[in-house]
């Protein structure tokens, strides 16, 4: 593995956003120190490194912080241009397309996913699920156009958009299990269903994608905290 | 062969204005297509089916949506007069703050503008906090981009325009010289840059539009 200089990543194992730079660093063959935050208590280092948002992930490269997961992934691509494959495509239009869908995932699709668990009542739940399914149908379409028959959005290897979407697969599986749904349905989204398997099996992803079981337990924990009455 | 560059926009969209500025900065010839968002054209719906919004950039028949993404596309397609710094760390910072502007600053200022009472008080406090962070980021520079305007100035440029509009309509003081001397100075410097000034939306047209938009929001919230 190529030495990346002094690279640290502040994060947590359950966070899909933290997974993004981890996959990127793996793709580039870069070593890094993973500084795991304890759930419920933010470290001094985190607060100092990301004073604006106080959130993970934060990449520290020679002690300089980079924040916001997709900004970090682009940084990794640009700071180590000759290590490993390019994460973003080379053509400006393809780059714009990848960025567009990544922004869609963050601004529309993932919020609709987390909306399912938060929905109150059967009707609201159904509406939330319908939104997610609609989004997946759009993404299936996008996958067909962008991959052009290749295994990933990025082509032969995992790229920016694979990372942007793939990081949520653990949570998709947890949602499927807890809600009794099939979201990555072979019948409805065959392209994405197969892509998801390939993504999770990739060597850059395997070690950082949490097991569904472990994630489901964690989800129960945070839902309990979310629903718990405020402390006296 | 002449390149076809078209920008679908509205007169008041601050997001579309970013694209105007970027194209002009790079000296790119383009055609503007004014959209009426109450009656969207077939072309707009075809080019931006997901969001059905402006701006959309059309370049040789291919459409790009989402203003910050369009800025990066412009930067990568036309290499003259770069908008972003070369250094990866400086680029990451510029992208971070542009996102902060869109995710935090704009929504808090917008809420402060359209809301009333306690909601407005809370929004104003949040907006001030956000503006303080931008003030800190300027850190003695003339522009966010340094000596010349760049990606982040363009991304935050809506501040220089809309703050004045919001302050005039609401009689609030959002950016005062005491708390935000650097930001106020930047707003003036930015507005004075010739290519920025050249496509500044007409103030007298913006005022009634934003008064009307505020009215719509206030009516919607009071009817719940």
Automatic annotation (TrEMBL), chain A:
Is involved in the conjugation of reduced glutathione to a wide number of exogenous and endogenous hydrophobic electrophiles. It holds the Pfam family GST_N. PANTHER family: GLUTATHIONE S-TRANSFERASE U17 (PTHR11260:SF615), GLUTATHIONE S-TRANSFERASE, GST, SUPERFAMILY, GST DOMAIN CONTAINING (PTHR11260). It is found in: Cytoplasm, Cytosol. Belongs to the GST superfamily. Tau family. GO terms for molecular function: glutathione transferase activity. One of its GO terms (cellular component) is cytoplasm. The lineage of its organism: Eukaryota, Viridiplantae, Streptophyta, Embryophyta, Tracheophyta. Keywords: Cytoplasm, Detoxification, Transferase. The keyword Iron does not apply. This is Glutathione S-transferase. It comes from Eucalyptus grandis. The keyword Transport does not apply. Its EC number is 2.5.1.18. It catalyses: RX + glutathione = an S-substituted glutathione + a halide anion + H(+). Residues 5-84 form the GST N-terminal domain. Residues 91-218 form the GST C-terminal domain. One of its GO terms (biological process) is glutathione metabolic process.
UniProtKB/TrEMBL annotation, chain B:
InterPro entries: Glutathione-S-Trfase_C-like, Glutathione-S-Trfase_C_sf, Glutathione_S-Trfase, Glutathione_S-Trfase_N, GST_C, GST_C_Tau, Omega/Tau-like, Thioredoxin-like_sf. Its main location: cytoplasm. One of its GO terms (cellular component) is cytosol. It is found in: Cytoplasm, Cytosol. One of its GO terms (molecular function) is glutathione transferase activity. Keywords: Cytoplasm, Detoxification, Transferase. The keyword Glycoprotein does not apply. Its EC number is 2.5.1.18. SUPFAM superfamilies: GST C-terminal domain-like, Thioredoxin-like. Residues 3-82 form the GST N-terminal domain. GO terms for biological process: glutathione metabolic process; toxin catabolic process. Pfam families: GST_C (PF00043), GST_N (PF02798). It catalyses: RX + glutathione = an S-substituted glutathione + a halide anion + H(+). Belongs to the GST superfamily. Tau family. This is glutathione transferase. It comes from Eucalyptus grandis.
């Amino acid at each position: 593995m190529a030495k990346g200089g002094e690279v640290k990543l502040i994060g947590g194992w359950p966070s899909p956003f933290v997974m993004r730079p981890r996959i990127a660093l793996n793709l580039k063959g870069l070593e890094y120190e993973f500084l795991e935050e304890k759930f419920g208590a933010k470290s001094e280092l985190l607060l100092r490194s990301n004073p604006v948002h106080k959130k993970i992930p934060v990449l520290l490269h020679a002690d300089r912080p980079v924040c916001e997961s997709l900004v970090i992934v682009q940084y990794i691509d640009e700071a180590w241009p000759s290590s490993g494959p390019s994460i973003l495509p080379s053509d400006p239009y393809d780059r714009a397309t990848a960025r567009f869908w990544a922004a869609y995932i963050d601004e529309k699709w993932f919020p609709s996913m987390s909306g399912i668990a938060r929905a109150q009542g059967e009707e609201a739940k159904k509406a939330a699920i319908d939104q997610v399914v609609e989004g997946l149908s759009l993404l299936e379409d996008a996958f067909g156009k962008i991959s052009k028959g290749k295994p990933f959005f990025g082509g032969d290897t995992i790229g920016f958009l694979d990372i942007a979407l793939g990081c949520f697969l653990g949570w998709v599986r947890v949602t499927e299990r807890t809600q009794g749904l099939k979201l990555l349905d072979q019948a409805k989204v065959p392209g994405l269903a197969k892509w998801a398997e390939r993504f999770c099996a990739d060597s850059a992803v395997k070690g950082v994608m949490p097991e569904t079981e472990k994630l489901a337990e964690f989800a129960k924990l945070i839902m309990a905290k979310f629903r718990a009455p405020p402390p006296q | 062969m002449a390149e076809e560059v078209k920008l679908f926009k509205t007169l008041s969209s601050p997001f579309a204005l970013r694209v105007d500025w970027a194209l002009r900065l790079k000296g790119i010839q383009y055609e503007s297509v004014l959209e009426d968002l109450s009656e969207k054209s077939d072309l707009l719906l075809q080019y931006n089916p997901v969001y059905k919004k402006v701006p959309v950039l059309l370049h040789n028949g291919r459409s790009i949506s989402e203003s910050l993404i369009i800025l990066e596309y412009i930067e990568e397609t036309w290499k003259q007069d770069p908008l972003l710094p070369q250094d990866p760390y400086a680029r990451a910072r510029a992208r971070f703050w542009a996102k902060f502007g869109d995710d935090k600053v704009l929504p808090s200022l917008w809420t402060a503008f359209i809301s009333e009472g306690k909601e407005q008080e809370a929004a104003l406090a949040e907006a001030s906090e956000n503006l303080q962070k931008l003030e800190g980021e300027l850190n003695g520079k003339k522009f966010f981009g340094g000596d010349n305007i760049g990606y982040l100035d363009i991304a935050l440029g809506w501040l220089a325009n809309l703050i004045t509009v919001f302050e005039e309509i609401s009689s609030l003081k959002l950016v005062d010289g005491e708390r935000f001397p650097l930001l106020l100075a930047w707003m003036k410097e930015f507005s004075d840059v010739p290519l920025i000034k050249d496509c500044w939306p007409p103030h007298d047209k913006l005022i009634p539009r934003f008064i009307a938009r505020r009215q719509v929001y206030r009516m919607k919230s009071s009817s719940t």
